[in-house]
Amino acid sequence: MNEKALKVLEFNKIKEILKRYTNTQAAKDLIDDLKPYDNSYEVKEHIEETSEAFKLLVTKGSAPFDGIYDIRDGIKMAEKGSSLIPIQLLRIANMLRCARRFKEYVKHKEGEESFRVIEDICEGIVPLKNIEDEIFNAIESEEEISDSASQTLYSIRKSLKDKNSSVRDKVNSLVRMYSEYLQDNLYTIRGDRYVLPVKSEYKNMVSGLVHDQSSTGSTLYIEPMNLVNLNNEIKELMLKEKSEINRILAMLSSHIYDNIIAVRNNSRIVWELDFIFAKAKFASEFNCTAPNVNDDGFIDIIQAKHPLIDRKVIVPLDICVGKNFTSLIITGPNTGGKTVTLKTVGLLHIMGLSGLMIPAKENSTISFFKEVFADIGDEQSIEQNLSTFSSHMKNIVNIINEADKSSLVLFDELGAGTDPTEGAALAISILENLKNRNSKIIATTHYSELKAYALRTESVENASVEFDVETLRPTYRLLIGIPGKSNAFEISKRLGLPNYIIDMAKETITNESLEFEDLIQNLQNKSIKAENDARESEILKMEAAKIKDKYEQRLTAFDHSKEKAFIEAQRKAKNIVREAKEEADKILKDMRELERMGYTSDARQKLEENRKKLSNRLDRLEEKAKIVRKDDGERLEDVQEGDEVFAVSLNQNVVVLSRPDHKKMVQVQAGIMKIDLNLNDLRVVKSKKNSENTQKRSQKKVKLNLKTVASSIDLRGMDSIEATYNTDKYLDEAYLAGYEKVTIIHGKGTGVLRNAIMEMLKSHSHVKNYRLGEYGEGGTGVTIVELKNH
Asked: Which residue ranges does the record assign to the Smr domain (predicted)?
């Protein structure tokens, strides 16, 4: 990818934002090297890894990066066999712990969603828990070695503590003895040796070694001869302590050296994971989705937002190129959003091709391009003494020399800066040449000639940025299929220009031109309405699809639970039968033994006891195996399609969907589920009166129970799965309680919990509307939910 496009489209600013979400300098270095990948396979894989990391953050919470540091210098030293200092060892241990925890973090249970790409990355991690434990047991902090690092160190420090205690007792007695000769009645330490601060005029009164003096020379620090041996012993122990610490550090460093390949690989994987999860955090912060990627040059980006523009003011845009046309000519007034459209399409493509998720709606599609060329903005070069036109043309020459079918070309005000007639002709020639190469082109212009070119040329389409004549302001919405209308007369009229001047101006324009402008206006109005209708239809379709998927998942889960329960029942039944058989065999064996003994009174008594024992056992087995069901109502001999009947096993009314087959199996509809039941399980439906009474009792009970339903729920401290489950349950209760509005408290934090709740609310059946809290309501730490009417 050419560096000019990356600079013009401000990809470097995106990378700087990405760095905020990393934990290590190594990950920042990976971001510095980030650029679009060379083939579509790599693009799709890296988008998938980002998407998986995003899902992990939502479902499992923060990734286990606690205590992680950049340890590349420490690893380099370990590779050379050098002895590492405590802080280096501790940070390596933290990295190893992080790597090991990641293997647990990405694991999934059977039936749960897998994370293929990240699991493959984590497959290369080699857990080294024994080295972790050794380092954490031996090193207490970045500068402190633990007493328990070795038995020798423990003994040395214990002896050192005892010696220090002895010498302090001794020196305190000397302080009292020589108090009249001392500057202060206390001792001090010089060079790890206990000394007394003796006044210089009394130096002969204290026998000992002078170690230091004060800056004024009035005080001498003397080590009394009585302390020399004790101080020597302490010094010797301190040297032994230092030697033992060095030995421990060397030993731990050697363990790192012995496993250096695994340590190095683990660290590289952790840096890569730090980089991947930075991309996921960026996606969470900017509400990004994973785009579809194709090799056909087809672009369909829905509700795209430029990530560097304030999200509160930016207007999302929809843009489609490459399906019915390969070139898009955008016209419209200045400051209407044409340049922003170009930069948004270009930047979102570079982000996607670099493995990032993009700030757009789901199902947005980008294409793999080997090159994105951008001629945007004023490229005038004073140093080269080039005019604006010359500078643009120099850039265009480079594009013409290199663009092909795998290129996306973005032109801003193509042909501007020179004579309008010549500039328009030149622009048409450039566009035609690139179109013939099958390059995908988006260009902005003010030239009417280019509008006409788009109207009459196959594979070229007009577009415009919408302008509101009433407010004299652009709406920043892109309208594909309609060339922009100048609106000069309408704007001038609303600004106060006299009508006679406007009428005179109209007379100088041909009728065909005026009719053409009116046609544009008419088409624009119809297009806006059609677009609104299509958008509403698409939203309803997506909501219906989500509801369908939701209930299909519930049905699948129900079938799975039913099958599991059946298998469990079979297993228990087999165990019961096996136990009964074993006990029966034992009783029969006892009976044969009694027969051999002869039928004495004692034998007959034992035989009767065993008979009763077997009978009781069978009764208990029969009680265990018996299925207790509520068997209300009259049995049915036959049913017809559409009949409403009562299913005993389900304890509810169902609708018959099919006649009984040869096995007397009937398909019924129970709510949203279709279930096969035996005819013997069906009864005549309960009377309407009984049903109504039951319903009234149920409603009364619900109302009584729901008096205690709170008007808010606090999710802080929960993970995404637990919070989503509790919110779903709470909304059901609040809906039944008749609440019109409730508050969900999720806190601000990283925004992961908030995003998970927002995603759930989009498709919840009881939710009418929702929004973030305002000032005084809790701000972005809460979501206000408006519930549907009963």
From this structure: 713-788
**Residues lower than pLDDT 50 in the chain:** 379-385, 625-631, 688-707
| pLDDT, position 443 | 92
Same domain, 310 and 455: yes
457 carries a ligand binding annotation:
no
Query: Do 119 and 155 reside in the same domain of the chain?
Result: no
pLDDT at site 692: 47
Ligand-binding annotation for 22, yes or no, is no
436 is in an annotated binding site: no
Same-domain check for residues 587 and 708: no
Q: Are the C-beta atoms of 266 and 125 separated by less than 8 Å? A: yes
| Per-residue CA distances from 363 to 293, 300, 715, 766 (Å) | 10, 9, 30, 26
781 is in an annotated binding site: no
The reply to whether 477 and 440 lie within a common domain is yes
Question: For position 16, what pLDDT does the model report?
Answer: 95
Which positions ≥6 away from 204 have C-beta within 8 Å? none
614/715 same-domain check:
no
Tokens representing 125 are 């991690």
Which pLDDT value is given to residue 707?
45
State the pLDDT at residue 691: 45
CA distances from 513 to 12, 154, 452, 454, 508 (A): 45, 98, 11, 16, 10
Domain that holds residue 711: 696-787
Instruction: Kindly state whether residues 323 and 446 are assigned to the same domain.
Output: yes
pLDDT of residue 506: 67
Contact 313, 300 (CB under 8 A): no
Residue 575 assigned as binding residue:
no
538 lies in a domain? no
